[in-house]
Amino acid sequence: MENKKYGEFDLKHKLLKGHNPLLSHSGVNAERLASRFHELAQIGLTNEKGSRRIGFSFQEFEAKELVKKWMIEAGLVVQVDGAGNVFGKLVGKDLTLPSILSGSHVDSVPNGGHFDGPLGVLAALEVVEAWKETSFQPRKSFEVVIFSDEEGSRFDNGLLGSQAMSGELNMTALKKVRDFNGEQFESVLIEAGLTLEGFTSARRDYSSIEAYIEVHIEQGKQLEKEDLPVGIVSGIAGPCWLQVTFTGESNHAGNTPMVGRQDALVAASKFIERVSELPKTVSDTAVATVGKLQVFPNGSNVIPGKVILTVDIRDIDLNSRDTLVEKIVAVGNQVENENAATFEYEELLRIAPVLVDESLKKKAEKACIDTDIRPFYLPSGAAHDAMVLGKHIPMSMLFVRSLDGISHNPREFSSLDDCVYSVHVLKKMIEQLNK
């Protein structure tokens, strides 16, 4: 029967189908969690049943307002900083101690899923709800956070909320950027009820925070292969982007003999093939991807005279990541020597990886064991707000199994059971930190 309010898309029903009700215990309520996923999903719902809540849009604001309402009902003290980051604070017994922070974001890519971001926010809030139902007050204050514009779909520059909180943003550069509609950053902020001055003032004293723990969907298939609901992140990979150019000579495809051709695309193809083999020579967690390729003049009857491509290189270990970069550059030089095409490269980005705090990893391991989950470590290849905060305070991440590894897509899905398991693990971690 069609839901009259929400049409054919009923995420709550989908989540509850096949759910194990025995997982609702210790104050954790799976049906409440499913209902909240469902309500958030209706904000910015696309024709493909995906999510469109771009950073600093009305939809992101509306989603934050909904979660703020839940925070207040749960007894949290809510504050919003100058970057639009939302903090719901459960006051602890000892006000002299720093807070424990947990959360994520509610913005999305243009046609994304309903778990990337919201899971981290709702899991942290569900911990508060569980404590409320069991009349538990933590010794240390606990804060549920919603960071602004994590995805970066608006300005091709993500993690803006957490970077504002950390004081890491280049506001001079941000003043010059424009969104996909040509609107300047400052104009977008004003429409969202924010200001440039507010963004600068959002910087927070990290001495008031003991640790940050983020729950997030895996966006990969490792947990699915291991048949595990939750995994422990070992570190967040730091990316290095190289823009590579191979230059040969354009000529007629029919009248130019094969011998003596200066085909830039052939050279680029050899380079790409070798790049794909290099990560495993460096470490088990290193990756390298050529995801963007431009061929000039791009004619079906013209020998390619120039190819520009990007190489995305990542690892959770700084030394192995940088070693891989060196090997890839060396391969480019080898291809140039073997082919009649020159090799040039430019470094577009280099960000250091961030490792998870060892003490928090041990607490996550114990929390998994206490929840009857086999501890399993895996790296995060994608950037998260935890990466920004991890430069300043102890940080940990929990990954939740993703169906078929799909993310940033309307088909993105994590089962309700897996989401509830993550709440139990997060809750146990925070309770360990309160001993």
UniProtKB/TrEMBL annotation:
Cofactor(s) listed: Mn(2+); Zn(2+)
UniProt GO molecular function: hydrolase activity, acting on carbon-nitrogen (but not peptide) bonds, in linear amidines; metal ion binding
UniProt-recorded name of the protein: M20 family metallo-hydrolase
Binding-site residues, Zn(2+) 1: 105, 116, 216
Keyword Metal-binding: yes
Keyword terms: Hydrolase, Manganese, Metal-binding, Zinc
Keyword 4Fe-4S appears in the UniProt entry: no
Matching Pfam families: M20_dimer, Peptidase_M20
Binding site for Zn(2+) 2: 116, 151, 408
Cofactor remark: Binds 2 Zn(2+) ions per subunit.
Domain of life: Bacteria
Cross-referenced InterPro entries: Amidase_Cbmase (IPR010158), Bact_exopeptidase_dim_dom (IPR036264), Peptidase_M20 (IPR002933), Peptidase_M20_dimer (IPR011650)
Domain Peptidase M20 dimerisation: 238-333
Subunit structure: Homodimer.
Family: Belongs to the peptidase M20 family.
SUPFAM superfamilies in alphabetical order: Bacterial exopeptidase dimerisation domain, Zn-dependent exopeptidases
